[in-house]
């Protein structure tokens, strides 16, 4: 049986969910195009590392796009010739496509990779405030996203000194912190006067530059470099101790402004949520 799509229904769906509005109007390629446009709007206005547009413009831009989508869906449906409904334009097809899309998003975020925004400068200068992190979650045993916790398994990550990870605190299980791993289980760490020794071996530290009250330096641990910042009199909070089994010592790279293991102690493996694999920093204005 040949039918025409309902133009009013197409307009409403096109406004609420633009790609599904195009599918209902029997235009699958337009559905893909509108999905790409939605992703582009989210990237441009949601990630300041791409382009310096005010994030407050994001909502008006998305609203204008949805109105345009509603108009297109309405006009396409009104002008469509009667034809047999494709599976994707039927109610179960629309629900299935929409549900499948969101299930894919949840799966990727919960089990593979999840983005995190950095709200502070505790990892400056390596990770400035406002940066976007992509965190690999596989093998860390924490499978949750959007505040929904699916389940947890035994964490079996392979971690090294200088890895940048996200972790929770025992007294703050709902907040993730981003820190650099300084000490592995069993390591003896001494940090005083902004100088560090690991298992009795001094960590090479080179002062790169001084800008006003800030001193920028580079530490080299296991052949990997860490850029750190020291403020004020350049004396960061000291630390001395042996890392317990199944724990890791975490430092912020902004050594005078980080709530890290010097204050909260080493972090248990089961509190580590993932390894940072990519950092997108905001573009300088």
Summarize the helices and strands and which ones pair or pack.
Layout: E1 2-3, H1 7-16, H2 18-24, H3 28-46, H4 58-79, E2 83-84, H5 91-112, E3 113-117, E4 132-136, E5 142-145, E6 148-152, E7 164-169, E8 172-183, E9 188-192, E10 195-198, E11 201-202, E12 205-211, E13 214-221, E14 224-230, E15 239-242, E16 247-251, H6 261-264, E17 267-268, E18 272-280
Antiparallel strand pairs: 1-2, 3-4, 4-18, 5-6, 7-8, 7-18, 8-16, 9-10, 9-15, 10-11, 12-13, 13-14, 16-17
What brief labels describe this structure?
285 residues, alpha+beta, Umud Fragment, subunit A, 7-stranded antiparallel β-sheet
Describe the structure.
- The N and C termini lie far apart (59 Å).
- The chain folds into 2 domains: 88 residues; 167 residues, Umud Fragment, subunit A (Ribbon), CATH 2.10.109.10.
- A 7-stranded antiparallel sheet has the order 3-4-18-7-8-16-17. A 4-stranded antiparallel sheet has the order 11-10-9-15, with no helix packed on it. The chain has a 3-stranded antiparallel sheet with strand order 12-13-14, with no helix packed on it.
- With 285 residues, the protein is α+β, with helices and mostly antiparallel strands.
- The protein has 6 helices and 18 strands.
